[in-house]
Amino acid sequence: MRIPFPDARLDVRGAAWLEPTDAGLLPQRLPAWTRAQYPDPLYAVNVAHPSGVRVRFRTTSDACVLHARVSRTLVRPVPPAVETPPRPPGPIDVVLDGELHCAIEPIGTGLVTLDLAAITQHEDLGAPEALAVDLPPGDGRPRTVELWLPYRDRVRLVALEADDVAAPPAVDQPRWVHHGSSISHGAEAASPTGTWPAVAARTAGLDLVNLGLSGAAMLDPFVARTMRDAPADLLSLKIGINVLNANAYGRRMFAPLLHGFLDTVREGHPDTPFLVISPLFCPIAEDTPGPTVIDPTVTDHVEFVSLGKPEQVAEGRLTLRDMRVLVADVVAARRAAGDTALHHLDGLALYGEQDGVELPMADLLHPDPPAQRRIGERAAEHLSRLAQPPAQPAQTTQTR
Protein backbone atom coordinates (compact mmCIF):
# COMPACT_ATOMS: atom_id res chain seq x y z
CA MET A 1 0.00 0.00 0.00
CA ARG A 2 1.50 3.33 -1.08
CA ILE A 3 0.01 6.42 0.63
CA PRO A 4 0.97 9.83 -0.81
CA PHE A 5 1.39 12.79 1.54
CA PRO A 6 -0.78 14.40 2.82
CA ASP A 7 -3.09 11.76 4.24
CA ALA A 8 -5.14 11.65 7.45
CA ARG A 9 -3.36 8.44 8.42
CA LEU A 10 0.03 10.22 8.44
CA ASP A 11 0.33 12.69 11.31
CA VAL A 12 3.14 15.17 10.65
CA ARG A 13 3.87 16.78 14.02
CA GLY A 14 6.08 19.76 14.76
CA ALA A 15 5.38 21.48 11.42
CA ALA A 16 3.22 24.57 11.05
CA TRP A 17 2.25 23.50 7.54
CA LEU A 18 3.25 21.27 4.65
CA GLU A 19 4.20 23.33 1.62
CA PRO A 20 3.15 21.68 -1.66
CA THR A 21 5.99 21.50 -4.20
CA ASP A 22 6.43 19.59 -7.45
CA ALA A 23 8.87 17.28 -5.65
CA GLY A 24 6.83 16.54 -2.53
CA LEU A 25 5.48 18.21 0.60
CA LEU A 26 8.00 20.37 2.43
CA PRO A 27 7.51 20.71 6.21
CA GLN A 28 7.76 24.34 7.32
CA ARG A 29 8.18 25.19 11.01
CA LEU A 30 6.70 28.71 10.83
CA PRO A 31 3.33 29.61 9.28
CA ALA A 32 3.17 30.63 5.63
CA TRP A 33 2.29 34.25 6.45
CA THR A 34 5.63 34.78 8.22
CA ARG A 35 7.63 34.31 5.01
CA ALA A 36 6.95 37.86 3.81
CA GLN A 37 8.61 39.15 6.99
CA TYR A 38 11.84 37.12 6.93
CA PRO A 39 14.87 39.43 7.14
CA ASP A 40 16.67 37.65 4.26
CA PRO A 41 16.37 34.55 2.04
CA LEU A 42 18.67 32.57 4.33
CA TYR A 43 16.08 32.62 7.11
CA ALA A 44 13.83 30.42 4.99
CA VAL A 45 16.48 27.68 4.93
CA ASN A 46 16.30 27.24 8.71
CA VAL A 47 12.51 27.29 8.77
CA ALA A 48 12.49 24.41 6.26
CA HIS A 49 14.92 22.31 8.31
CA PRO A 50 12.55 19.89 10.08
CA SER A 51 14.06 19.92 13.56
CA GLY A 52 11.57 18.19 15.84
CA VAL A 53 9.30 17.23 12.94
CA ARG A 54 8.20 13.60 12.88
CA VAL A 55 5.78 11.47 10.90
CA ARG A 56 3.49 9.32 13.09
CA PHE A 57 1.34 6.39 12.02
CA ARG A 58 0.09 2.98 13.19
CA THR A 59 0.87 -0.27 11.43
CA THR A 60 0.96 -4.02 11.97
CA SER A 61 3.67 -4.33 9.31
CA ASP A 62 7.21 -5.41 10.08
CA ALA A 63 8.59 -3.02 7.46
CA CYS A 64 7.73 0.20 5.71
CA VAL A 65 9.31 2.54 3.17
CA LEU A 66 9.44 6.33 3.33
CA HIS A 67 9.66 7.90 -0.12
CA ALA A 68 11.29 11.33 0.16
CA ARG A 69 13.76 13.76 -1.38
CA VAL A 70 16.57 14.88 0.93
CA SER A 71 18.78 17.91 0.29
CA ARG A 72 21.94 18.58 2.24
CA THR A 73 23.06 22.12 3.08
CA LEU A 74 26.30 23.80 2.00
CA VAL A 75 27.34 27.16 3.44
CA ARG A 76 29.68 29.44 1.52
CA PRO A 77 31.94 31.31 1.75
CA VAL A 78 34.09 30.05 4.61
CA PRO A 79 37.84 30.56 5.11
CA PRO A 80 39.66 28.47 2.46
CA ALA A 81 41.61 26.56 5.09
CA VAL A 82 38.44 25.01 6.54
CA GLU A 83 36.43 24.64 3.33
CA THR A 84 35.01 21.12 3.11
CA PRO A 85 32.41 19.28 1.03
CA PRO A 86 28.84 19.33 2.35
CA ARG A 87 28.26 17.02 5.27
CA PRO A 88 26.32 13.80 4.70
CA PRO A 89 22.63 14.16 5.54
CA GLY A 90 21.59 13.47 9.08
CA PRO A 91 19.84 10.22 9.98
CA ILE A 92 16.13 9.64 10.33
CA ASP A 93 15.42 8.21 13.79
CA VAL A 94 12.80 5.48 14.01
CA VAL A 95 10.85 5.43 17.28
CA LEU A 96 8.63 2.40 17.88
CA ASP A 97 5.95 2.63 20.58
CA GLY A 98 7.91 5.40 22.25
CA GLU A 99 11.34 3.72 22.21
CA LEU A 100 14.19 4.54 19.85
CA HIS A 101 14.48 1.52 17.55
CA CYS A 102 17.02 2.41 14.87
CA ALA A 103 18.24 5.08 12.49
CA ILE A 104 18.14 5.07 8.72
CA GLU A 105 20.66 6.94 6.59
CA PRO A 106 19.44 8.92 3.56
CA ILE A 107 21.81 9.46 0.63
CA GLY A 108 20.79 13.09 0.23
CA THR A 109 21.39 13.70 -3.47
CA GLY A 110 19.93 17.21 -3.34
CA LEU A 111 21.92 20.27 -2.27
CA VAL A 112 20.90 23.65 -0.84
CA THR A 113 23.70 26.19 -1.20
CA LEU A 114 23.68 29.22 1.09
CA ASP A 115 25.79 32.10 -0.17
CA LEU A 116 26.37 34.30 2.85
CA ALA A 117 28.11 36.96 0.79
CA ALA A 118 25.36 37.31 -1.82
CA ILE A 119 22.65 36.54 0.77
CA THR A 120 21.03 33.98 -1.51
CA GLN A 121 20.06 30.33 -1.46
CA HIS A 122 19.81 27.87 -4.33
CA GLU A 123 18.60 24.27 -4.34
CA ASP A 124 19.56 21.52 -6.76
CA LEU A 125 16.87 18.89 -6.32
CA GLY A 126 18.08 15.36 -5.99
CA ALA A 127 16.44 12.09 -6.89
CA PRO A 128 13.68 10.62 -4.72
CA GLU A 129 14.83 7.97 -2.25
CA ALA A 130 13.09 4.85 -0.99
CA LEU A 131 14.14 4.69 2.66
CA ALA A 132 13.42 1.22 4.06
CA VAL A 133 12.50 0.84 7.73
CA ASP A 134 12.77 -2.66 9.17
CA LEU A 135 10.81 -3.22 12.37
CA PRO A 136 11.12 -6.16 14.78
CA PRO A 137 8.53 -8.89 14.27
CA GLY A 138 5.24 -7.99 15.93
CA ASP A 139 2.33 -10.02 17.24
CA GLY A 140 -0.21 -8.64 14.81
CA ARG A 141 -1.30 -5.74 16.99
CA PRO A 142 -0.91 -2.17 15.61
CA ARG A 143 2.20 -0.33 16.72
CA THR A 144 2.90 3.40 16.63
CA VAL A 145 5.87 4.41 14.50
CA GLU A 146 7.50 7.85 14.53
CA LEU A 147 9.99 8.89 11.87
CA TRP A 148 12.02 11.84 13.23
CA LEU A 149 13.36 13.80 10.27
CA PRO A 150 16.94 15.16 10.07
CA TYR A 151 17.28 18.51 11.82
CA ARG A 152 19.76 20.11 9.40
CA ASP A 153 18.54 18.95 5.98
CA ARG A 154 15.61 19.78 3.72
CA VAL A 155 13.19 16.84 3.40
CA ARG A 156 10.32 16.64 0.92
CA LEU A 157 7.78 13.99 1.87
CA VAL A 158 6.41 12.00 -1.07
CA ALA A 159 4.71 8.84 0.20
CA LEU A 160 4.74 6.09 2.81
CA GLU A 161 4.57 2.45 1.77
CA ALA A 162 3.49 -0.38 4.12
CA ASP A 163 1.17 -3.38 4.16
CA ASP A 164 -1.30 -1.46 6.30
CA VAL A 165 -1.37 2.02 7.78
CA ALA A 166 -3.82 3.60 10.21
CA ALA A 167 -4.00 6.97 11.92
CA PRO A 168 -2.14 7.01 15.26
CA PRO A 169 -3.96 7.70 18.51
CA ALA A 170 -4.44 11.31 19.53
CA VAL A 171 -1.48 12.75 21.42
CA ASP A 172 -2.27 13.21 25.11
CA GLN A 173 1.05 14.77 26.13
CA PRO A 174 1.34 18.46 27.06
CA ARG A 175 2.24 20.46 23.98
CA TRP A 176 5.55 22.33 24.38
CA VAL A 177 6.43 25.19 22.04
CA HIS A 178 10.06 26.31 22.26
CA HIS A 179 12.06 29.03 20.48
CA GLY A 180 15.82 29.35 20.52
CA SER A 181 19.05 29.52 18.55
CA SER A 182 21.13 27.01 16.57
CA ILE A 183 21.75 25.16 19.82
CA SER A 184 17.99 24.60 20.09
CA HIS A 185 17.82 23.88 16.35
CA GLY A 186 20.19 20.97 17.06
CA ALA A 187 23.77 21.88 16.21
CA GLU A 188 25.90 19.68 16.71
CA ALA A 189 23.64 16.83 17.82
CA ALA A 190 24.26 13.37 16.38
CA SER A 191 20.63 12.67 15.44
CA PRO A 192 17.15 14.22 15.42
CA THR A 193 16.23 12.65 18.78
CA GLY A 194 19.61 13.78 20.13
CA THR A 195 18.93 17.51 19.96
CA TRP A 196 18.45 18.90 23.43
CA PRO A 197 14.77 19.86 22.88
CA ALA A 198 14.02 16.34 21.60
CA VAL A 199 15.86 14.78 24.54
CA ALA A 200 13.96 17.02 26.96
CA ALA A 201 10.59 16.34 25.33
CA ARG A 202 11.03 12.57 25.22
CA THR A 203 12.33 12.48 28.80
CA ALA A 204 9.60 14.72 30.21
CA GLY A 205 6.77 13.28 28.10
CA LEU A 206 6.06 16.43 26.07
CA ASP A 207 4.68 16.97 22.56
CA LEU A 208 7.46 19.07 21.01
CA VAL A 209 7.16 22.00 18.61
CA ASN A 210 10.73 23.16 18.06
CA LEU A 211 11.14 26.71 16.78
CA GLY A 212 14.90 26.65 17.29
CA LEU A 213 16.33 28.56 14.31
CA SER A 214 20.07 28.73 13.64
CA GLY A 215 21.36 32.26 13.95
CA ALA A 216 17.84 33.64 14.20
CA ALA A 217 16.75 33.87 17.86
CA MET A 218 16.53 37.67 17.80
CA LEU A 219 13.11 38.30 19.41
CA ASP A 220 11.50 38.69 15.97
CA PRO A 221 7.88 39.88 16.29
CA PHE A 222 6.59 37.33 13.75
CA VAL A 223 7.98 34.50 15.89
CA ALA A 224 6.27 35.98 18.95
CA ARG A 225 2.98 36.10 17.03
CA THR A 226 3.50 32.49 15.94
CA MET A 227 3.91 31.40 19.56
CA ARG A 228 0.94 33.54 20.59
CA ASP A 229 -1.32 31.80 18.10
CA ALA A 230 0.01 28.25 18.53
CA PRO A 231 -1.81 25.77 20.78
CA ALA A 232 0.47 25.26 23.79
CA ASP A 233 0.42 23.84 27.29
CA LEU A 234 4.01 24.92 27.96
CA LEU A 235 6.18 27.64 26.41
CA SER A 236 9.88 28.38 26.54
CA LEU A 237 12.36 30.84 25.09
CA LYS A 238 16.14 30.57 25.15
CA ILE A 239 17.55 33.97 24.28
CA GLY A 240 20.87 35.78 24.06
CA ILE A 241 23.58 34.08 22.02
CA ASN A 242 22.29 35.06 18.55
CA VAL A 243 21.88 38.68 19.61
CA LEU A 244 25.58 38.67 20.47
CA ASN A 245 26.59 36.62 17.42
CA ALA A 246 25.15 39.24 15.08
CA ASN A 247 25.83 42.20 17.37
CA ALA A 248 22.18 42.87 16.54
CA TYR A 249 21.50 45.43 19.25
CA GLY A 250 22.87 46.57 22.58
CA ARG A 251 21.88 47.06 26.19
CA ARG A 252 19.45 49.89 25.39
CA MET A 253 17.17 47.62 23.34
CA PHE A 254 17.58 44.16 24.84
CA ALA A 255 15.19 44.38 27.80
CA PRO A 256 12.47 46.35 25.97
CA LEU A 257 12.51 43.90 23.06
CA LEU A 258 12.32 40.94 25.43
CA HIS A 259 9.37 42.59 27.21
CA GLY A 260 7.69 43.18 23.85
CA PHE A 261 8.17 39.55 22.78
CA LEU A 262 6.70 38.29 26.05
CA ASP A 263 3.82 40.78 25.83
CA THR A 264 2.86 39.43 22.41
CA VAL A 265 3.01 35.78 23.44
CA ARG A 266 1.00 36.52 26.55
CA GLU A 267 -1.82 37.97 24.42
CA GLY A 268 -2.64 34.40 23.41
CA HIS A 269 -1.33 32.56 26.45
CA PRO A 270 -1.92 34.76 29.51
CA ASP A 271 -1.57 31.94 32.04
CA THR A 272 0.42 29.23 30.26
CA PRO A 273 3.62 28.23 32.08
CA PHE A 274 6.47 30.01 30.30
CA LEU A 275 10.17 29.34 30.96
CA VAL A 276 12.68 31.99 29.84
CA ILE A 277 16.23 30.65 29.64
CA SER A 278 19.29 32.90 29.57
CA PRO A 279 22.46 32.02 27.58
CA LEU A 280 24.43 28.85 28.13
CA PHE A 281 28.14 29.10 28.86
CA CYS A 282 30.16 30.05 25.78
CA PRO A 283 33.89 30.63 26.28
CA ILE A 284 34.31 33.16 23.47
CA ALA A 285 31.47 35.44 24.53
CA GLU A 286 31.26 35.52 28.32
CA ASP A 287 33.05 38.86 28.56
CA THR A 288 33.61 39.76 24.90
CA PRO A 289 30.89 41.31 22.74
CA GLY A 290 30.12 40.14 19.22
CA PRO A 291 29.90 39.80 16.36
CA THR A 292 31.17 36.23 16.11
CA VAL A 293 32.72 34.78 12.95
CA ILE A 294 34.69 31.72 11.89
CA ASP A 295 38.25 32.31 13.08
CA PRO A 296 40.42 32.65 9.95
CA THR A 297 43.59 31.97 11.95
CA VAL A 298 42.54 28.38 12.78
CA THR A 299 43.38 26.22 9.78
CA ASP A 300 42.72 22.60 10.77
CA HIS A 301 39.09 22.84 11.96
CA VAL A 302 36.24 25.31 12.43
CA GLU A 303 36.40 27.58 15.46
CA PHE A 304 34.43 30.73 16.14
CA VAL A 305 35.73 33.95 17.66
CA SER A 306 34.07 37.10 19.00
CA LEU A 307 35.42 40.24 17.40
CA GLY A 308 34.26 42.76 19.98
CA LYS A 309 36.44 44.22 22.70
CA PRO A 310 35.71 44.14 26.45
CA GLU A 311 36.00 47.92 26.67
CA GLN A 312 33.00 48.24 24.31
CA VAL A 313 30.74 47.03 27.11
CA ALA A 314 30.91 50.55 28.53
CA GLU A 315 29.47 51.77 25.21
CA GLY A 316 26.42 49.53 25.58
CA ARG A 317 27.60 46.42 23.74
CA LEU A 318 26.43 43.14 25.30
CA THR A 319 28.20 40.09 26.64
CA LEU A 320 26.58 36.84 27.71
CA ARG A 321 27.29 37.72 31.33
CA ASP A 322 25.34 40.97 30.88
CA MET A 323 22.41 39.27 29.16
CA ARG A 324 21.97 36.73 31.94
CA VAL A 325 21.42 39.59 34.37
CA LEU A 326 19.04 41.38 32.01
CA VAL A 327 16.95 38.25 31.38
CA ALA A 328 16.67 37.56 35.11
CA ASP A 329 15.66 41.18 35.77
CA VAL A 330 12.95 41.16 33.09
CA VAL A 331 11.40 37.95 34.41
CA ALA A 332 11.58 39.17 38.00
CA ALA A 333 9.87 42.45 37.09
CA ARG A 334 7.05 40.68 35.27
CA ARG A 335 6.53 38.19 38.10
CA ALA A 336 6.37 41.08 40.56
CA ALA A 337 3.72 42.65 38.31
CA GLY A 338 1.59 39.50 38.60
CA ASP A 339 2.77 37.03 35.92
CA THR A 340 3.54 34.18 38.29
CA ALA A 341 3.34 31.62 35.46
CA LEU A 342 6.51 33.15 33.98
CA HIS A 343 9.73 31.50 35.16
CA HIS A 344 13.45 32.12 34.75
CA LEU A 345 16.20 29.55 34.28
CA ASP A 346 19.85 30.57 34.28
CA GLY A 347 21.41 28.97 31.20
CA LEU A 348 24.46 28.07 33.26
CA ALA A 349 22.28 25.50 35.06
CA LEU A 350 21.98 23.66 31.74
CA TYR A 351 25.56 24.10 30.51
CA GLY A 352 28.00 25.96 32.73
CA GLU A 353 31.72 26.62 32.90
CA GLN A 354 32.47 23.19 34.40
CA ASP A 355 30.47 21.55 31.62
CA GLY A 356 32.69 23.43 29.20
CA VAL A 357 35.66 21.67 30.78
CA GLU A 358 34.05 18.22 30.86
CA LEU A 359 32.26 18.43 27.50
CA PRO A 360 33.98 21.22 25.56
CA MET A 361 32.56 22.72 22.39
CA ALA A 362 34.78 21.74 19.48
CA ASP A 363 33.99 24.97 17.62
CA LEU A 364 33.71 27.05 20.84
CA LEU A 365 30.07 27.88 20.07
CA HIS A 366 27.91 24.76 19.63
CA PRO A 367 27.58 21.89 22.15
CA ASP A 368 28.73 18.51 20.86
CA PRO A 369 26.41 15.44 21.00
CA PRO A 370 27.11 14.46 24.66
CA ALA A 371 26.57 18.06 25.73
CA GLN A 372 23.32 18.34 23.77
CA ARG A 373 22.07 15.26 25.61
CA ARG A 374 23.18 16.61 29.01
CA ILE A 375 21.41 19.91 28.35
CA GLY A 376 18.23 18.08 27.37
CA GLU A 377 18.25 15.85 30.42
CA ARG A 378 18.71 18.84 32.72
CA ALA A 379 16.05 20.87 30.92
CA ALA A 380 13.59 17.99 31.30
CA GLU A 381 13.75 18.30 35.08
CA HIS A 382 12.65 21.94 34.95
CA LEU A 383 10.07 21.44 32.21
CA SER A 384 8.49 18.47 34.02
CA ARG A 385 7.76 20.65 37.02
CA LEU A 386 6.02 23.27 34.87
CA ALA A 387 4.14 21.08 32.40
CA GLN A 388 0.39 20.86 32.77
CA PRO A 389 -1.81 18.15 31.25
CA PRO A 390 -3.55 19.37 28.10
CA ALA A 391 -7.18 20.40 28.48
CA GLN A 392 -8.07 17.67 25.98
CA PRO A 393 -6.02 15.26 23.88
CA ALA A 394 -4.55 16.88 20.78
CA GLN A 395 -6.36 15.67 17.69
CA THR A 396 -4.39 13.85 15.03
CA THR A 397 -4.09 15.99 11.90
CA GLN A 398 -2.00 16.05 8.76
CA THR A 399 -0.15 19.23 9.71
CA ARG A 400 0.40 19.90 13.37
UniProtKB/TrEMBL annotation:
Residue ranges occupied by any SsfX3-like N-terminal domain in the UniProt entry: 11-151
Low complexity: bias regions: 387-400
InterPro entries reported for this sequence: SGNH_hydro, SGNH_hydro_sf, SsfX3-like_N
Biased composition range(s): Basic and acidic residues: 374-384
Positions of the UniProt region annotated as Disordered: 367-400
Superkingdom in the source lineage: Bacteria
SUPFAM superfamilies linked: SGNH hydrolase
Domain SGNH hydrolase-type esterase: 177-277
Descriptive protein name: Lipase
